[in-house]
Amino acid sequence: MTDNKELPKNADSTKPVEVSFYEKHKKIYVRDVKGWWTSWRWALVWLTQILFYGAPWLQWNDRQAVLFHLVERKFYLFGLVLWPQDVFYLAVLLIISAYALFLFTAVAGRLFCGYACPQTVYSEIFMWVEARIEGDRSSRMKLDKAPMTASKFSLKLLKHLIWIAISLWTGFTLVAYFTPTQELLAALPFGFSGWEIFWTLFYAGFCYMQAGFLREQVCKYMCPYARFQGVMFDPDTLVITYDPERGEPRGAKRKGADAANLGDCVDCGLCVAVCPTGIDIRKGIQYECIGCGACIDACDPVMDKIGKPRGLIRYTTENALEKHFSSKDVISHIARPRIILYSVILVLICIATAWSIATRIPLMVDVIRDRSTLAGRWTGWGEYFRMASCRGLQR
User: Fold this and answer.
1) Hey, which of 66, 206, 245, 251 has its CA 20 to 30 A from 74?
2) Whether the Cβ atoms of residue 4 and residue 13 lie closer than 8 Å to each other
3) Which residues pair with 59 in a beta bridge?
4) What torsion do the CA atoms of 81, 82, 84, 90 make, to the nearest 10 degrees?
C-alpha cells in the first residue's frame, strides 16, 4: 500500500511503501512500583483469591457451603438450595452483573479490568513469582538476553514449576465447586473421572498460558470488553489521564539549565516502564489502558522530588481537564442521567430478586410410570389411559 505519511522528507512520493498491519510482539518487562493504587490492587488480589480458593472448603450443616452439585442437580449456597427449575436466577444474576459492569464503567472506567479481572489478578501473581526468582526489571532483561547456562535454566525451570503448581491448584479449585472437595481429595491422585481430569487440566492450561505468556495480549487483542468499553465512556467518566497542559513540553530538569519553558514532565519514562500493557499514557486515552493506576504511583514520587504538585497523571475526567474542574465539581458530575438510570435499574432488580428468593416455595415433582402391564383387550378409557402418580414435596 502507499502511505505518503510514512515517507521521509525529500523522498519520491510515487514510490510504493510497504507498511505491515501486524506489529511484532515485544515482551513487556514491568517494573515494580509501590503506592496507593498498587496497594489497592494487591488488596483486591488477596480478597478475590481468598474467596475463590477458600469457598470450597467452607462447611455448612455438614455439607459444602458453596457447591454446584451437577450429579445431584442441586446448587448449595450456604443455607439456600436451588433446583434445576430455579435456573431463572442464573439469568437474573447475569443481568445484575451486566448492569453493575455498565454502572462501574460509566462512573470510573475499567475498574474491573484493573483490579478484579482474573486476567489481571493472575498476571500480577505470576509476575510477582517471576520477580522474586529472576530479579527486578533490569535483571530479567539481562537474563533473557544472556545465553542459556545451567544457572539460567534452573531459574527458568523453578519459575515455570511454580507457575504450573499454581495453575493446577487453580484448576482443582474450579472443579471443587462442582464436585465435593472431600470426594476430590479421596480420589487423589488417580481416581478422578474423565470430566474432572479434563476441566482441571483445561483451566490450569489456560491459567498458565494467559497469565504466564499472553498477559497484556489478552487485554489488547482477545478481550471483547476492551473493544466495546468506549460506548460506556463519556467526558464525565473517571479515567487515568495525563495533563498535557501542565506537563508539556517535556524535558529533564538539570541543575543550571533553563527550565522555564519546560513543563512538569521530566520525560523519565517510568509511567511506561510500570504499565502492564506497555502503553504511554502521555499519548492520551487508549483502549489498552486497564485503569490500574500504576502510572500514577510511578509519577507522583517524581513530582515530589522535583518540587512539583502531584497529579500530573491522575484519575479524573476529560471535562475536568478541559474545564479545570475542582474535585467537588468532578464528584457533582457523577450523578448524571445515565448513572441514575443504571443505579435505579440495578437496585430494583436486586430488590426483586431478593424478595423472590425469600418468598419462594420449593416444589419438586416426580412423574412415575405405572408398573402394571396394560391388558391386551379393551378395558375402557379409564383403565387404558392411566394417570401418572405425582407427589409434591414442600420444604
Assistant:
1) 206
2) yes
3) 64
4) -150
